[in-house]
């Protein structure tokens, strides 16, 4: 049973597991929007092409050991890499505490591990979708479709939401966005209110959190997205595609804005927070689209709301209802 294992060991293992997979998430954030494999080519320097030694493949701390530059030629590396690795590690610890060490849960170690790992890859998919959407205003199918399948397959082990609620959440989550905000909105307004990536992401969210979680993600995500949009318009501060975590590189090399990128080798070796990187001089960067002035990427706010529901459930729902009741338009 999980209770037979020391809590410190479970949490420590979760932190290491999450940090290592955070390196892969960095790889996916760079490669999937460009249609590149996350397996090959092996990791190499973004400037001189030299392969990255395994001794620098330490998650989080590797970036600081190298002082934010490649070991071979001193090419600057984005601080996004240790940030994502740390986020991944912390979220993995939170999942272990929530689904394995909670005092009201008594599970076998095998079942608890299956549940924890399934939710971790769900959270990892939300991280990838968030950072890709912030930079390119698109969500890779490589995240949403396998994620939705994983949610449905593992629903038998996860209660709640259970198999029926997971299937209903996946189907309803996809159709609500696709029918109302994609096809119908395009027919009425002549342009799409949301992208198909949002509907597929909500399908993944529904597969893991059920129809209640999908519904919460839509409304809470929309509310938080509106708040962010208003703040952006008032302050004049926004984000643009192609100028996310790699903004420094983008300013100096517009045609190769995301050269400094973490990558695993063919065996899936982890990076050290950015010391691994990819280059592909033939890649064309997408045209900038500014959400601070025209468009808001909805994926990050769907992901944020999904995390709120995952960790807080009914408490998060109640908090949002209470907040809505206090707003001026409610009265």
Write the SSE topology.
Layout: H1 7-31, H2 61-65, H3 80-99, H4 109-136, H5 141-153, H6 163-189, H7 196-235, H8 247-252, H9 299-312, H10 314-326
Helix pairs in contact: 1-3, 1-4, 3-4, 4-5, 4-7, 4-9, 5-7, 6-7, 7-9
Report what the structure shows.
The chain has 331 residues and is mainly α. The protein folds into two domains: 1-137 and 241-286, no CATH class; 141-239 and 298-331, no CATH class. It is built from ten helices and no strands. It has helices at 7-31, 61-65, 80-99, 109-136, 141-153, 163-189, 196-235, 247-252, 299-312, 314-326. Helix 1 (7-31) crosses helix 3 (80-99), helix 1 runs parallel beside helix 4 (109-136) and helix 4 runs antiparallel to helix 5 (141-153). The radius of gyration is 20 Å and the shape is globular. Mean pLDDT is 76; it is low at 240-293.
